[in-house]
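Student: Send me a single protein entry containing the residue sequence and its fold in token form, directly below this note:

Tutor:
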Amino acid sequence: MRNLFYAVSAFVLAGFVGLNLPLIAAQGAAAPPKAAPVRVIVGVEPRHQAETPAVNREDVMVFEGHDRDQVTDWTAAQGIGAGLEFLVLVDDSSAFSVDSQLGEIRAFINQQPPATQIGVGYMHDGTVEMMQSFTQDHAAAAKSLRLPMGAAAGAASLYFSLIDLMKHWPANSASPRREILLISSGIDLYYGGGPEDPYVDEAVQDLQRAGVVVFSIYAPGGGHLGHSYWLSNWGQNFLSQVSEETGGESYYFGFGPAVSFAPYLNQLARQLQRQYLLSFIPKPQKKAGIQKIRVTTELSNVDLVAPDKVYVPAWPEH
């Protein structure tokens, strides 16, 4: 009888342990690591010039190929919590005709929200000369604008300057938004023109890696090159590529100097007010790098404007 009792007890104990082995194993194993969300700046543009509609987190979708990523946050970029570092970047090889628009650029700078940090820089010789570091003193930033040097600015690529800028943007920046207004012909004085400019591609990738959005206004270059239809055409294409692939927009009208920058600057001001900070969980990546994404919505009366690629860090090992 006693042997029977021991046998039954052993059977019950074995069954209990067997049933709970998955639970014990799960409790003993470390939880799988979670990827850090990737944050991207997204512009909301109403269609047909209508009033900007409300866009909620559940309205926003992020895709990598055919796979949909999880959206973890969607916050309007307004107020102190959505700080902005905004750089007015002038191509020093621009024609002197830009002088007639300096007053409009100054007015735009002075109209920005008080919390916006504004810097002013000039591109020449493959670098950026900062005339005013980022400051909330908008009057000082506006005052630092000067006439470009024109053809005397040298023959280095302006895209070298953008690449160099990404290496020297303040690393301790706490602002969730970093954006640029680029005023240039877009002409690569080093490469020239053609369907694929490797320096443009490198600059775009560095901007995407840093999460910097570029808006651009076409301004003819100084000297003979500023009259080249062929180079001007490619220059505008390059400006469009940089802006569209980083989530911004390029403004131009024909190949001559704009009569006024004011319409472009007014549109830019509206776009800055319609931005959101989007966070999402990317697909697991063994190696950090640039990944192609698509940000969209099923809302019929609005378009979402975002970079087409973002930097995704490698997931931690399981």
